[in-house]
Amino acid sequence: MREIQLDQLTNYSKWPKRLIGLESSPKIIKSESEVIREFEIETWGSIRNSSKGKLMDIDSVEDRYFSLDYEMPFFYKGKFYITTNKNILNKHIGFYHDTLSKYIDNSTALVEFGAGFGSKIIRLAKHDIFRNIPKYAGELTESGQELISAISKEMSINIEVGKIDLRRQEISGLSLPKRALIFTSYASHYDPCMNVDFVKFLKSFEPSAVVNFEPCCELYSEKTIHGLMCKKYISTNDYTSNIWSTIRNHCEDSGLNLNCQSNILGYNPFMPISSVEWGW
Questions:
Q1: Are 207 and 179 a contacting pair, CB within 8 Å?
Q2: Domain residue limits, the chain
Q3: What value does the mean pLDDT of the chain take?
Q4: How far is 21 from 214, CA to CA, in rounded Å?
Q5: Overall average pLDDT of the 119-143 stretch
Q6: Among residues 103, 89, 93, which one has the least CA distance to residue 133?
Q7: For residue range 160-187, what is the model confidence (pLDDT) as tens digits?
Q8: How far is CA 228 from CA 63, 70, 189, 235, 270, in A?
Q9: What's the CA gap between 270 and 13, in Å, rounded?
Q10: What is the gyration radius of the CA atoms in the chain, in angstroms?
């Protein structure tokens, strides 16, 4: 990894100029139909169609999504770096592994909600600590579900796949055991009107713990230029602004344990994620 400064992000992205008002950036509305269009058709659907008849291991499919050798900026523990997508992905998996490992001994299964094409849960399944525990993946789009099933089958990894709609709090095709370890990754921030029903929905599965690896707008500092730019990025893209307080308030009201590692890393330097860890 090569460290860079905040000012150098303008060499790699149009977002700095947009976020300080030097270039126009119309507000994006993250409606349900927009999210479906983006992922069902343009993203996971495109990858599914381009993958037909080709090797379906996770690295090959990931490379069709975004070249693993491509270099780009990312945020990690308060600093900015340039490195390959492969290295950024490995940083995420390492962080997820270390965080989820704290809860796995008391869990009956590993569950990812909003799993996309399976990048995170399939990679985690290759680690010894998660290898022999039952695994479940819930995904909104049919194309994402098909990719998870095809990739995991190709790699001889057993993952039960079904549909999850985190925005509507609906699930189908999955029967989860109690005391499973549930996690989300860049999946819970698409609902600009999030409320306590989101937390109650996850709680209804009676998990051992829940870990939300998500961008938390409220945890971005108002005392730094970068923090203010992150808040503006969330607002401009119509992402959820209250993930942290929604979970925190319910945990306080319900007497649940809550831990947070804030603003650890991010593919997008203006949307670093935190790990919000809560449960019993």
A1: yes
A2: 2-279
A3: 95
A4: 26
A5: 97
A6: 103
A7: 999 999 999 999 999 999 999 999 999 9
A8: 32, 28, 18, 11, 9
A9: 11
A10: 18
Q: What is the mean pLDDT of residues 69-91?
A: 97
Which of 271, 273, 238 has its CA nearest to residue 38?
238
In the block, residue with structure tokens 């977002």 = 15
Q: What is the pLDDT of residue 50?
A: 83
Assign domain 2-279 one CATH number from 2.60.120.560, 3.50.4.10, 1.10.10.10, 3.40.50.150.
3.40.50.150
Burial class (CB in 10 A: 0-12, 13-18, 19+), 137: buried
Q: Are 186 and 88 in contact (CB under 8 A)?
A: no
Residue whose entry in the numeric block shows the structure tokens 């495109």: 46
- Determine the 3-state secondary structure of 123 from DSSP: helix
Tokens of 208: 């051992």
Of the candidates 113, 141, 80, 119, which has an alpha carbon nearest to the alpha carbon of residue 207? 113
Q: Rounded to 5 degrees, what are φ and ψ at 96? A: -65, -45
Grouping H, G, I as helix, E, B as strand and the rest as coil, residue 213 is strand
State which amino acid sits at residue 142. E
Q: Is the pLDDT of residue 154 over 90?
A: yes
The neighbouring-strand residues paired with 74 are 81
Pairing relationship of beta strands 110-113 and 135-138 according to DSSP bridges: parallel
